[in-house]
C-alpha cells in the first residue's frame, strides 16, 4: 500500500464559477465548474486512482481489495465496502440553494443511505462573500413552511461574511447555504442526499425552476438556535490544530514552514490530506514519497505508520482528516 492520489471528478453547475480549474492547475476548458469531487465512493461518482500500481482502479475497488489495510479495522467493520468520507472543493459564482441534509436515522429510513454531516473550510473568498448557517431566531415547522412559500426564509437564517481560514461545522439537520464568491473545501459523510429548501426562484437555461423538497426538509431540520455557528480556533505554526471532532470525522489544520513528523501507529484509520495553500513533500515509513500542491488531495492507507511532511519554499497549509 502507498499514498493514493485520485483523478478529480468535475461537476458543472448552475451556480459554478471559474476558480477550480486554475486552482488545481488542470488542463481543461470546462466552464461553470462548481465542484471538484476529490475523493468519492458515491455510487456512479467513484474516484479513480491516478498514481502507482493501482492506477485506474476505483476507490470502491480499492476498499474491496484492501479492506482494513486501506480504511482501518473499525472503519471496515462499521462501513464495509463503502468509503465513509466525501471530499470536495466548491466554487460558488452565485448563491447556492438554502438546503439541509438528513441524519443517519432519517436517511436510512427514507433512502437506505448514510446521512450527511459535513464541515466547510474557507479556502478563498471574494470581498463581501457570505454564507448562511443555522437559524437566527426560533421558528416552528409551520412557520418554516410559510416562510419558504412567501420567500422570507432567508430573513431567519444566520449570515456570516467569510474570509480564508474560516470554519463551519454542519451537523445533519442544520439549514445552510454557501454564498456567491465563496471557495470552500468540504469534508462530509459519503452521501449525496440534499433537501433543497429555497432556490431564490432561479430558472435554468430552459426557464425551469429546480425542484424543492420543502416537506422532506421539514422533518430533517434541527430548529434549535445557537449564539454563533462558526468554529473558533487559534492557528499555530508547525503543529496540528484540531478544528472538528465528531463521530464521522476528525479534522485538523496544519500551517507549516518547517518539516514535521506525524505518528499514525496508534490510529486505526486512513488519513486524508487536502492541500489548500502552497506545496510540500510527504514521505512515509516505507519510503514512498510524493509532492502535494495546492488543490491536490492524498489518501494515506491505514497501514501507514508515520510520515514526514516537508513544506515548499513558501510553506504549506493542509487539512488532515480521518475517521
TrEMBL record:
Cofactor: how and how many bound: Binds 1 zinc ion per subunit.
GO annotation (BP), single: carbohydrate metabolic process
InterPro entries tied to this protein: Carb_Metab_Reg_Kinase/Isom, Man6P_isomerase_Firm_short, MPI_cupin_dom, PMI_typeI_cat, RmlC-like_jellyroll, RmlC_Cupin_sf
Matches recorded under CDD domains: cupin_PMI_type_I_N_bac (cd07010)
Any one GO molecular-function label of the UniProt entry: zinc ion binding
UniProt cofactor(s): Zn(2+)
Chain ranges of the Phosphomannose isomerase type I catalytic domain: 6-113
Keywords from the named record: Isomerase, Metal-binding, Zinc
Domain of life of the organism encoding this protein: Bacteria
Mannose-6-phosphate isomerase cupin domain ranges (all copies): 243-310
Membrane-spanning residues: none
Binding residue positions for Zn(2+): 101, 118, 176
List of catalytic residues: 196
PANTHER family cross-referenced by the UniProt entry: FRUCTOKINASE, TRANSCRIPTIONAL REPRESSOR MPRA
Protein name: Phosphohexomutase
Biological classification of the source: Bacteria, Pseudomonadati, Bacteroidota, Bacteroidia, Bacteroidales
